[in-house]
# Entry
Amino acid sequence: MVLTMTASESQHVLVTGGSGFIGSHLVDHLLQLGHRVDVVDDLSTGRLSNLEPLLSKHSDRLSFVHSDLSAWLVGAGSGSRFDAIYHLAAAVGVKLVVDDPISTIETNIMQTSAVLGHVTAHGIPLFIASTSEVYGKSDSIPFHEESDITFGPTSRSRWSYACSKAIDEYLGLAHAKRHGTPIVIARFFNTVGPRQVGTYGMVLPSFVHAALSGRPLQVYGDGEQSRCFCDVRDIVPVLPKMLANVECHGRVFNLGNDHSITINELARLVRDTLGSTSDIEKIPYDEAYAPGFEDLVARAPDLGRIREVLEFAPSVSLVQTIRDLAAIADLEGGAS
Ligand code: UDP
# Structure
């Protein structure tokens, strides 16, 4: 039998992808809860600098392993027991996916499969980070977890990301059902916040960086596509609560903010919030990504399911997120 601990008991946890943007905020939160945290990260998109202050401050409770996750799980980590695993290691960013679909597909599916093998063998509760991209280009807004999903053709590499994360979800749900392991899956909707970088195409850090350096804010397409942005600091405290809640086990949940904004409005908000004089320019999708790129016109979460099982009310405003991103922007590094 698998015993699930309450969110407040001290635990020894593993965070895969813990040096990434969301992962490092989660590590920070887990340390604040008093847990001992191990991080395994291949640093493909994560940055060790995200963890360095935490490694200095909590050297007794935080450890970092630089490794490919699948290799680590069959090697040095094969016998490791944890009270919980948070699996955040994944290929991130639409731009990265379009540029390198093979590594996106292989990273996402093989690593998740390896983690699932480990947790089911040892009876370890597992949180899997998924993405709103899984809904594909569905137009039934807001997206509900039981809504149909609609992917474009396989000739458009963008959808390989959605498809690989959907396979991860199928695998997670099937293992939860077969082995009774507590597995929780959350689909993140456009998570933003400090430490997010524009390198992989994410819009908010790209806009903040451009606004601060006086370069034009590049709006792709006509800019009327809409998204719901949620600050990472509203997201990470919910994850241990979900893992500790039996009503979440074996299920998929939307997680994000349901306040919608168009990319044109976002560009103006960034410019106004930072008092920037940067221009806003339109770039055709073909030029921004690749010929034939398909974007989503709108994306918004239905938050009914998560709110049925626990309190979830995002409170960090987009203006606050923009200010905090700008405050630590790394203009030399070309990313914020
Ligand atoms: N986008 C943009 N300018 C940028 C980066 C992105 O206009 O510099 C657009 C992108 O085409 C999409 C939206 O902003 O319509 C959100 O993009 P992001 O990659 O942040 O997340 P997505 O919702 O595509 O996963």
In short: The domain at 12-192+229-257 is CATH 3.40.50.720 (Rossmann fold). Residues 331-336 have pLDDT under 50 and may be disordered.
